[in-house]
Design a protein that fits this description.
Elements (H helix, E strand, L loop, with lengths): L6 H4 E2 L2 E2 H22 L3 H4 E17 L5 E8 L5 E8 L2 H6 L12 E9 L5 E8 L5 E3 L14
Parallel strand pairs: 5-7
Antiparallel strand pairs: 1-2, 3-4, 3-6, 4-5, 6-7, 7-8
Length: 152
C-alpha cells in the first residue's frame, strides 16, 4: 500500500489507468476524425475552370455519406453512351437544400450543370440539377470552396 492506495488500483493489466485512458482517448479521437480525413475540398478533385452540362438518364443512386452519387448515361454527338458519376452534397445537406430521397430516381431524365474531375475520369461535381419534373435544385456541398452555377 502506497499513500492509502494499493498497487492494484494504480495498475490494471500492467498498464497504469491514466495511460490506458490516454490511449483509449487517442484511439477514439482518431476514429472520430476518419470521416473528416476522407472528405475533400472541391478543388482537390474537381476543376472549377471546366464546367460541363450533362443530359442523361439516371442509372444508379448511392444515397450515403459523405456524398451522394448518382450515375447517368450520357449520349455524345456520335451516339456513343458513357456512364457519368455525379457527386453531390451529403444526405443531410441535400435535405436542407430541398432534396428528398426520391428526388432522383433510376430512369429519370436529368440535366446536370457540373465541373469535371481533375483526373479526366467520367466524374463531375454536380452544382445544379434540373430534375425530371423541371425543378432545379442546388447539389453542391456548402462550404466546399467550389464555384457557383456555371449557368444561371
Amino acid at each position: 500500500m502506497v499513500g492509502g492506495t494499493t498497487r492494484n488500483s494504480l495498475a490494471w493489466g500492467g498498464i497504469r489507468v491514466k495511460t490506458r485512458l490516454a490511449l483509449w482517448l487517442a484511439v477514439a479521437g482518431l476514429a472520430a476524425a476518419m470521416p473528416a480525413l476522407a472528405h475533400h475540398s472541391f478543388t482537390a478533385e474537381f476543376d472549377g475552370t471546366k464546367p460541363v452540362e450533362l443530359k442523361g438518364v439516371v442509372t444508379k443512386i448511392e444515397w450515403a455519406n459523405p456524398h451522394v452519387y448518382f450515375y447517368i448515361d450520357v449520349k455524345d454527338d456520335k451516339g456513343n453512351v458513357a456512364n457519368w458519376g455525379c457527386e453531390i452534397a451529403g444526405p443531410g445537406a441535400l435535405l436542407r437544400q430541398g432534396w428528398k430521397r426520391d428526388s432522383v430516381k433510376v430512369g429519370d431524365q436529368v440535366i446536370v450543370y457540373a465541373y469535371l474531375a481533375r483526373d479526366g475520369s467520367k466524374l463531375a461535381d454536380a452544382r445544379r440539377v434540373t430534375l425530371s419534373d423541371g425543378r432545379r435544385v442546388f447539389g453542391g456541398t456548402p462550404g466546399d470552396g467550389g464555384p457557383g452555377d456555371p449557368k444561371q
